[in-house]
Amino acid sequence: MNYLASVGSYAIMVREVFKKPTKWRIMKSLILKEIDELIYGSLGIIVFISFFIGAVVAIQTALNLTNPIIPRSLIGFATRQSVILEFAPTFVSIIMAGKVGSYITSSIGTMRVTEQIDALEVMGVNSLNYLVFPKIIAMLFYPFAIAISMYVGIFGGWLAGVFGGFLTSTDFVTGLQSEFVPFHIAYAFIKTLIFAFIIATIPSFHGFYMKGGALEVGKASTTSFVWTSVVIIILNYLLTQLLLG
Amino acid sequence: MIEVDNIHKSFGEAHVLKGISTTFETGKTNLVIGQSGSGKTVFLKCLLGLFTPEEGSIIYDGKRYSELTDDEKRDLRQEMGMVFQGSALFDSMTVEGNVRFPLEMFTKQPKSEMEDRVNTVLKRVNLIDANNKFPSEISGGMQKRVAIARAIVMNPKYLFCDEPNSGLDPKTAILIDDLIKEITEEYDITTVINTHDMNSVMQIGEKILFLKNGYKEWEGTKNEIFKTDNEAVTNFVYSSDLFKKVRQMYIEERN
Lengths: 245, 255
Description:
The complex is a heterodimer. Chain A is mainly alpha-helical. Chain A has helices at 2-17, 24-39, 43-64, 74-113, 116-122, 127-139, 142-163, 169-177, 182-208, 214-244. Chain B has a six-stranded mixed β-sheet, with helices on both faces. In chain B, strands 2-1-4-5 form a four-stranded antiparallel β-sheet, with helices on one face. In chain B, strand 9 (207-212) and strand 10 form a beta hairpin. The interface between A and B is medium-sized, with 16 and 22 residues.
């Protein structure tokens, strides 16, 4: 029953976010600040993780290719498919649920604990629009970060494959180009956009409606990470079935 | 003037406010006192429109809150200023940014006019040279003054303060009390202050409402509170040794 009530409250929150908008002059600077915090500030960790994930995928594929009939170019193909279809959009989103999600929950939760949200509401400001809307808009730029993740992941795979002595650069590029389906890129970005909305809103929900003090802010951050990850994993399954199945 | 007519507020099974009626007059400092858990904060949040009472009504200068449209409620809220117990300043903004915030949100004033207004109110609360500091860089007393400046920057008709001098040293607490009283008279606003500080009652309590377990137990002026026979009020007022001694001296003098 509690879960159902939370789903209902979440839906109401999302509706409220788009009501009674804040002045554009103020909203513009809030959006730019959030792009800096949520997207630009996450690029370092995204690049780091993507590089090594791409490299590991290439090495694992190479080590499991024991049959001499299978061409070595499969390493490039497997790296591309793994990185574009799953590792960049889904795996990185789970990482972002931890990094960005906990930041969102703790910053909004702290505002709740210190009555800053009450202060906004007393002034007649739609606090949900003021706090959550800029985060949703900023997260629309998340696909750019994922595009970088895809590039860096494949680059990591190429570097590990070629310099690890598993295949030649030509083989890797051949595999990379073979049986390329452009819709896979669209699929990855559709997923990314939906995950971006989830990463912006579920942590906001947990921060905005939290009760208690500093300890509860920490607990809310953990809960929000768990729920954001669960929703991402379930949606990943459903979207894959819908778009590729 | 704010008229409160028989308001009830519950949270689940907890009946927090039980039929409170009173009137807060314009240009006066109205104090709501009572022990922790007596319903003071819930009462204040009802006055602010943050909580909706299940029964009864609150009337702001003839406007019954429950009958207002959403837009009218928003307009009314812009006529309210609030000083929170913990100041509730926005951490990410400087002192100047905090005070300018309501002007930026709700007016179309040019930047220079906003700056003038911000400097005027900061000067009024005796805060000079703190414009570019962040809330974490200033003392608790200064934070309270910034919160007061933010609350009055839009020329409100109603000012609400939730324990404005809690956590402050006695000297700073007196300064804050004086400032609130001066502003109330100067701007002719209706001020309602939640407190359990008897020094504030002595200093600025023009009208006092005493709450106990969600009921209105007593109301009167600061002169009347020391003469009342109401046991709950006397127990509360004379809970400190200092006030007990003052009362003893008063009784001895009278006899």
